[in-house]
Amino acid sequence: MREMCVICCVTMVLFPLVSAYTSSFYTDNNLGQSVPIIQVKQKQQDVQQELLELMGLYSKPKSKVNEKNIQSASKFMQDLYKSLKEVDGYDYVGDSHIHINNLVNVSSLGLDPEKVEGSDVIVSFINKDGEVHIRHKKDSTFYFDFTEVSIREHLKGAELRLYKEVSPAFSSGTFSLNLYFIKDAADMEEKILELESTLRVDWAKTGWITLDATSAARNWTLFPHSNRGLLLKVFDSSGKEHEPRDIGIVSRRGPMDKMPFLVGYMDMDTEILSRRARSLRQARWAQNKDDVSYADNPFTPHQGTPRYKSNSSCQRHNLYINFREIGFDNEFLIAPDGYSAFFCEGDCSFPLGIHMNATNHAIVQTLVHLMTPLEAPKPCCAPTKFGPITLLYYDANSSVVLKRFKEMIVKACGCL
Hints:
Layout lengths: L1 H12 L11 E4 L5 E3 L4 H14 L16 H15 L20 H4 L3 H4 L4 E6 L14 E2 L10 E12 L9 E11 L6 E12 L4 E6 L1 H9 L7 E7 L4 E2 L18 E8 L1 H19 L26 E3 L1 E4 H4 L6 E3 L2 E3 L2 E3 L14 H12 L9 E14 L5 E16 L1
Antiparallel strand pairs: 1-2, 1-13, 3-11, 3-18, 4-9, 5-8, 5-11, 6-7, 6-9, 9-10, 12-16, 13-15, 14-17, 17-18
């Protein structure tokens, strides 16, 4: 039980341990007010690194957010983030997956519920101009960099999103859009085209359309160096081929908010990610162990006067994390600016009231402590229920990543 209390207390002090002479973190002062936690500059950098490792990143990516071809992908993901943000308020205990409910407007975003449901990572890949080399087909080819995608990110599905306008060249008819997966042939000058998906559209269709690209994306995830891109061909009802721009498909030279992009839906192996983050964290802590003292912990009574001490019974307290003041600018982290993490603190003394959410073991431990204090400590005030948060950010390839992280918000506290 003592080990459990220590583990639970780690979550309580993780964020306040590291900050700068700024107000990156805010907590209660027992007077109904939120006050900043003041720490040294080095600790702010440590928290930033801690959060990056939690996100599966080794360092803060240097994205090119001002590139023209990133605007449409970014806009789509921000709209998706706003729709899914409301779902964070629902209780999916121990679950970091994205769930579709009536708060998410699936149709307005053109989402496939089967791909979204159960994902915990959604990535928008921007089209890399000039990476596919097929003569006279620059406006019909697409290339999406999958080198940053791990095979442990199980791909549930992928779709190419294209914007179609009404073309003045046609006033009737339907067209077949054939998407091909480009592969190398024996002759390096030749390419093999494997049909990936087909979609029929009316000449008057306006707005975003999607073509399935799951098979190609799965291949690129396993063999990123075999990625030769995608090719789009358009045929009318008589079988005659047309250029995509002829029927109103916006190409790489179109408006920046209508650029083509690819969306991937993934189910992350969170256990492996957690082990990698712990390994990186332990190595870094081993290097910096001489720089850490009890005085760095605002909750500890071991040295000096604690910056925070509660005399109340076990309960949840405010703790706001400001990502911008940690150093996550909007060229990396798109949203949110910060969030309320909360923490648990307070006394677990006899009698343990109903509001303390005490376990049976905690009640027994309290009785033992009353009779023989040296035999067992008092129960520990710790989180009993957590909630997830959703982060939206750019990776090193300027792809836009939406990822949910479980156990980031304390929802309830209790005596354990």
